[in-house]
């Protein structure tokens, strides 16, 4: 089983739609979780951290389910500019806070 | 605020030539530093990380090496490049603790 797994997509959704991505992780001792956004041929950029209680930033909501070992990202009212690849990131438990495992990403295409 | 600089943005090198990519961070001290490689259409592969000057941990066997001669300087090198070294190289930094990583703009390396 991969340490971090994501559905590669692509998810093709119309503007204004709500879309959700899930990401599963294998090590129950992991403590830090993040969502990044990567545009084509660009560097990943931090979208949001994921907290145990769940957190929201505008149209974006992140949730953590420790029991099932997955994190989710919900995007409401999708914009064309949301088209990108979304990377799930989990710290590599047992190695301090030094290393993070990146999922291979979920591609989102928002259609006009 | 913290910034990360990575150069060059693009590089075309012949097989067997040496390589030196440099990354510097400003606005923070004693950061964790990372080098990643991303092959076309693939996820991020951690190559090296460093928790302090002169401290380098290698994640995968390869013909690349890394050095940290100063607190906020991280260098990726090779004595003889292989075709398989082509890819998108990303430098990143993070604070200690459960903090997210922040990436430089990346270097797109093509080996001919």
Give short descriptive properties of this protein:
heterodimer; A: mainly beta; 5-stranded antiparallel beta sheet; 52% strand; B: 112 residues; mainly beta; 4-stranded antiparallel beta sheet; 58% strand
- Share in β-strands of chain B: over 45%
Q: Given the C-alpha coordinates, what overall shape of chain B results? A: globular
Amino-to-carboxy terminus distance of chain B: 39 Å
Outline the low-pLDDT stretches of chain B.
Answer: none
Q: Total helix count of chain A? A: 0
Helix tally of chain B? 0
* % residues in beta strands of chain A: over 45%
Spatial separation of the terminal alpha carbons of chain A: 37 Å
Mean pLDDT of chain B: 93
Rg of chain A, rounded, reads: 14 Å
**Quaternary form:** heterodimer
Mean pLDDT reading of chain A = 93
Order of helices and strands of chain A: EEEEEEEEEEE
| Largest sheet entry of chain A | 6 strands, mixed
Explain this structure.
Chain A is 0% helix and 52% strand. By secondary structure, chain A is mostly beta strands. Chain A is globular and about 45 Å long. In chain A, 33% of the residues are buried. The model of chain A has no long low-confidence stretch (mean pLDDT 93). The radius of gyration of chain B is 13 Å and the shape is globular. In chain B, a hairpin with a 7-residue loop joins strand 9 and strand 10.
Summarize the structure.
Chain A is built from no helices and eleven strands. Chain A is mainly beta and 112 residues long.
Write the layout of secondary structure elements.
The complex is a heterodimer of chains A (112) and B (112).
Chain A: E1 4-6, E2 11-14, E3 19-25, E4 33-38, E5 44-49, E6 55-57, E7 60-65, E8 70-75, E9 84-91, E10 100-102, E11 106-111
Parallel strand pairs in A: 2-11
Antiparallel strand pairs in A: 1-3, 3-8, 4-5, 4-9, 6-7, 7-8, 9-10, 9-11
Chain B: E1 3-7, E2 10-13, E3 19-26, E4 32-38, E5 44-52, E6 55-58, E7 64-70, E8 73-78, E9 87-94, E10 102-103, E11 107-111
Parallel strand pairs in B: 2-11
Antiparallel strand pairs in B: 1-3, 3-8, 4-5, 4-9, 5-6, 7-8, 9-10, 9-11
């Amino acid at each position: 089983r991969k340490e971090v797994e994501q559905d590669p997509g692509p998810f093709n959704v119309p503007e204004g739609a709500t879309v959700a991505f899930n990401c599963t992780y294998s090590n129950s001792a992991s403590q830090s979780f993040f969502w990044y956004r990567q545009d084509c041929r660009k560097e990943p950029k931090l979208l949001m951290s994921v907290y145990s209680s769940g957190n929201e930033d505008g149209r974006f909501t992140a949730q953590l389910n420790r029991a099932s070992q997955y994190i989710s990202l919900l995007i409401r009212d999708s914009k064309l500019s949301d088209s990108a690849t979304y990377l799930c990131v989990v710290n590599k438990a047992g190695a301090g806070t030094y290393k993070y495992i990146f999922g291979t990403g979920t591609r989102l295409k928002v259609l006009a | 605020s913290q910034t990360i600089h990575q150069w060059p943005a693009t590089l075309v090198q012949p097989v067997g030539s040496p390589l030196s990519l440099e990354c510097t961070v400003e606005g923070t001290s004693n950061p964790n530093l990372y080098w990643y490689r991303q092959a076309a259409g693939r996820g991020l592969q951690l190559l090296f990380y460093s928790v302090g000057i002169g401290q380098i941990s290698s994640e995968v066997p390869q013909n690349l090496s890394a050095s940290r001669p100063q607190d906020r300087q991280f260098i990726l090198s090779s004595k003889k490049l292989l075709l398989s070294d082509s890819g998108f190289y990303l430098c990143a930094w993070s604070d200690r603790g459960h903090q997210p990583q922040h990436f430089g703009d990346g270097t797109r390396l093509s080996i001919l």
